[in-house]
Amino acid sequence: MSEVATRELMAKRFRSFLPVVVDLETGGFNARQDAILEIAAVTLTMDPEGNLMPDETHAFHVDPFEGANIEQSALDFTGIKLDAPLRQQMAVCEAKALGDIFKPIRKALKSTGCTRAILVGHNAAFDHGFLNAAVERCGIKRNPFHPFSSFDTASLAGLVYGQTVLARACRAAGIEFDNNAAHSARYDTERTAELFCAIVNRYKDLGGWQLALREQQLEEDNHENEN
User: Fold this and answer.
1) Contact partners, residue 219, CB within 8 Å, separation at least 6
2) Potential cystine with 18: which of 55, 85, 114, 199 (Cβ 3.0-4.6 Å)?
3) Lowest-confidence range among 6-10, 69-73, 124-128?
4) Tens digits of per-residue pLDDT, 64-100?
5) Beta-sheet pairing, 52-61 with 36-46
6) CA-to-CA distance for 120 and 118, rounded, in angstroms?
């Protein structure tokens, strides 16, 4: 299969949507009032056999926006220490974090021929709500993500593995999961990306997407024979 055909597989697989895995650690549950403290995104790629794979990770510590609320219970749950020297040194504002994440996503959209990114998240509605609120707060005009559609790995894992908790779903899928590293945006996003790829690839191996791949291969073979 040609390199061009391989790139086109992603666009054909998800109706021209490019799945991008996102996780945010926040100061609470209110997307408009509570701070985003960490954000990470993993772009995905596809091999010539149509297997989905994690590609690049982009992660940032985020400075709370002015007037943001931060619940102590949220800090206790995530283990984030706002005064940690490394965090204070590395944290950036929301606008820079989003801009630096959106740039490679737009590049991936162009390279795959996809028209829009679609958020993949574990309990995706939570992350999507915070992402949309931050985009609005920062006045970003070109949000690469679909405004309301998403893929939820909690639902998908419940269907495929009978597990909805990220750690348990990963283990059911044969993915190692370190509870001590959990609730870091980078770690959770990378494990969620592995889980989403495992689910999509398992469906392909059972014959679902493989049918579409065969049809495309037949079209390419027919085209080559005609030439």
Assistant:
1) none
2) 114
3) 6-10
4) 999 999 999 999 999 999 999 999 999 999 999 999 9
5) antiparallel
6) 7
Q: What pLDDT is stored for residue 8 in this prediction?
A: 76
How far apart (Å, rounded) are the C-alpha atoms in residues 204 and 202?
5
Task: Output the six-digit token pair for 153.
Answer: 């790995």
**What is the rounded CA–CA span in Å between residue 172 and residue 174?**
5
pTM comes to 0.90
Q: For the purposes of burial, counting CB atoms within 10 Å of the CB of 79, is it exposed (0-12), middle (13-18) or buried (19 or more)?
A: exposed
Phi, psi of 87 (to 5 degrees): -65, -45
Active site residue 122: no
The one catalytic residue among 61, 122, 146, 183:
183
pLDDT of residue 28: 98
- For 194, residues 6+ apart whose C-beta sits below 8 A from its C-beta are 54, 170, 173, 175
- Angle formed by the axes of helices 208-226 and 185-205, to 10°? 70
Strand order in the sheet with 116-121: 52-61, 36-46, 17-26, 116-121, 145-152
